[in-house]
Amino acid sequence: MNQLIQDYKTLLVGEPRLRPVDAAMQLGVSEAELLYAQLDEPVTASITRLDEAQLPEILKSLKKLGKVMALTRNGSVVNEIKGVYEKLYVSENNGKLSGIAINPGGIDLRLFLYRWQSAFLVETERHTSFQFFDKHGCAVHKVYTTADSDFNELVNIKARYQSTSSRPLTVVPFESAEVELTSPSTSQLDNFRTQWGELEDVHHFPKLLALHQLERLQALELVGSPWSFELQNFALEDIFQQAKTFKQEIMVFVGNQGAVQIFSGKVDNLKQVGSWYNVLDPDFNLHIKADELTRAFVVRKPTDNGDTVVTSIEFFDANRETVLTLFGRRIEGKKQTNEWQALCERLIHKGQVAA
């Protein structure tokens, strides 16, 4: 018997409800490796390997399933949206494949497919899911069936895209690298601040960081007022409660190296469960491991030819990685609501008082 399978079975005896992602961590392997090991010897699920060469076709076919639940997570935050997996467009730029699904209020995605390496169909007693992984075997995106999914179409998708190859799964061990931060001169920093103030599109911000060779968190630390304010004292429950109280439509961005998933709408059912802070609404669930969000900033960026300033709240973990970003929802070309701006102003004031 495969040793990994034996170890997995032993682990489940003591923790029968252990999630695969947590089991993989305890076993010292990636989640993809744990699924791959079960291809011939299922433990908790029936596993079918999918043909990753047909990733765009697989993703586009998911629309036929009807209502599904899309899940994208990083180490600290999980974003789950129920809806139809539709309006997905795939393109290639400089040899890099990417996908986009613009469905505000529904399943809204930005997919960096060139970082995806393996795909599996996972069938358990509770649900069936399409699971996609990067070269490290870490999950980048998952799509689950719901009670309203078309299970006849599921059978067709499985037959059409299951892999016929017997090639082994290759996983590259993850190596955490020390972040090397540059030290801009006074003139370089002044130039960066000037160009920040001249932004005409928030989507140009990553290019601005690359141009000045600045890491995102470092840029927020350096630029200061009026563009960036670190929150010395912040509470997730206060932010979400204010959004609920003022009936604010917000945008919630959660991403990893392979995908970003965006929720747009109002939040209602807010609940703390253990170390997790949660939004538990019918078609949107958000799970945040609040104690892993170590730093937060209110960030302003000019857009729409510089006439409109867009304000966000950005959260980082101990590894300086962005794990959650909140925006006040707005229509392109329009300003964010006064209520959202007031919410952010209160956070800035509270943070300055705390400092």
UniProtKB/TrEMBL annotation:
What are the Haemin-degrading HemS/ChuX domain coordinates in residue numbering? 214-347
Single Gene Ontology BP term? iron ion transport
Name of this protein? Putative hemin transport protein
